[in-house]
């Protein structure tokens, strides 16, 4: 079975609440801890529930984006609405996306798994397409058979 597909997607917008990741981009353990602390905080203080209440669908977007030379990490939803506590409206371009599907025991585990497969296996070996920057997202789509399922979406261009 292929571990990824390439799919054409229309442009879409995600409203996000975010944090700057301060760990070096090669410090996987540090980044993972910062992300986990961020998700724990927004669950506990109610910001994630507030964001989810505005969502156009049930998807939760786990977005990574470089903004002004800072590594940013967001929890987001697709919505046309705005929210005072939201940090960013994230524009995803129309075009081709690398899509990696997965299932895991938790949203955090799923996000880490599909991100690792996409950036650790698929992109380094890709001959016909490349990631050239811009926001990328793990999409938490729901639960099935006791597991969380979703996909990684990374905008790519043909080489």
Explain what the structure shows.
- The chain is an alpha+beta fold.
- Helix content is 27%, strand content 43%.
- The chain has three helices and ten strands, in the order ββααββββαββββ.
- The protein has helices at residues 28-44, 47-53, 107-125; strands spanning 5-9, 12-21, 60-67, 70-78, 88-92, 95-104, 129-130, 136-144, 147-155, 157-158.
- Strands 1-6-9-8-3-4-2-5 form an eight-stranded antiparallel sheet.
- β8 and β9 form a beta hairpin.
- The longest helix has 19 residues, at 107-125.
- The model has no long low-confidence stretch (mean pLDDT 93).
SSE layout and pairing:
Layout: E1 5-9, E2 12-21, H1 28-44, H2 47-53, E3 60-67, E4 70-78, E5 88-92, E6 95-104, H3 107-125, E7 129-130, E8 136-144, E9 147-155, E10 157-158
Antiparallel strand pairs: 1-6, 2-4, 2-5, 3-4, 3-8, 6-9, 7-10, 8-9
Strand order within the widest beta sheet: 1-6-9-8-3-4-2-5
Tally of DSSP β-strands: 10
> Helix amount, in percent?
25-40%
Radius of gyration using CA atoms only: 15 Å
* Average pLDDT figure: 93
| Biggest sheet record | 8 strands, antiparallel
Shape: globular
Structural class: alpha+beta
Query: What is the element string, with H for helices and E for strands?
Result: EEHHEEEEHEEEE
Stretches where pLDDT is under 50 for at least 5 consecutive residues are none
Strand content: 35-45%
Q: What is the end-to-end distance? A: 24 Å
Q: What's the helix count?
A: 3
């Amino acid at each position: 079975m292929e571990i990824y597909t390439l799919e054409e997607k229309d442009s879409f917008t995600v409203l996000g609440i975010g944090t700057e990741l301060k760990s070096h981009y090669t410090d996987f353990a540090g980044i993972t801890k910062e992300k986990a602390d961020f998700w724990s905080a927004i669950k506990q203080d109610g910001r994630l529930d507030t964001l989810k209440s505005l969502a156009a669908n049930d998807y939760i977007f786990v977005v990574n984006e470089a903004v002004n030379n800072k590594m940013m990490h967001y929890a987001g939803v697709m919505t046309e609405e705005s929210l005072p506590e939201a940090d960013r409206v994230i524009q995803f371009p129309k075009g081709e996306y690398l899509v990696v599907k997965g299932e895991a025991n938790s949203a955090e585990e799923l996000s880490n798994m599909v991100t690792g497969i996409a950036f650790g296996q698929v992109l380094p070996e890709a001959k016909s397409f490349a990631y050239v920057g811009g926001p990328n997202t793990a999409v938490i789509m729901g639960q099935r058979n006791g597991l969380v399922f979703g996909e990684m979406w990374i905008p790519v261009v043909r080489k």
